Amino acid sequence: MIKTEDISIPGFGPPTKDFDPKDYAVRYLKANLDEVDQRMELELLETRGIGGNEVVTLQRQNFTFMDKFFIIVQYLEKKAD
């Protein structure tokens, strides 16, 4: 399992043994939790991130706008072979 604290910037800390940044792409998801389809997409993403192999969550932010609750997730997703 890869955790975000295991990922290091080159030259800053020990290299991780199983993580190769060339195998991952940075992705963003903005989800409005009032919308069922967006909430389900967020749930699927977070569930995939539990194992830490396909998806690694880097950062999560939330905000409210016009009485709607949003979550923005920045994550790494493993590229297809």
How does this structure look, described?
The protein is an alpha+beta fold and 81 residues long. It has one domain (18-78). The chain is built from one helix and three strands. The protein has one helix at residues 36-51, and strands spanning 24-32, 55-65, 68-78. A three-stranded antiparallel beta sheet has the order 1-3-2, with helices on one face. It is elongated and about 40 Å long.
What letter string, H or E per element, gives the SSE order? EHEE
Strand adjacency order, main sheet = 1-3-2
What structural class is derived from the secondary structure elements? alpha+beta
Task: Bin the strand percentage.
Answer: 35-45%
Task: Name the average pLDDT.
Answer: 79
Low-confidence segments, given as residue ranges, are 10-15
CA-to-CA gap between the ends? 19 Å
Shape descriptor:
elongated
Task: Briefly say what this structure is.
This protein has 81 residues and is of the alpha+beta class.
Using brief descriptors, characterize the structure shown:
single chain, 81 residues, alpha+beta, three-stranded antiparallel β-sheet, 1 helix, 20% helix, 38% strand, elongated
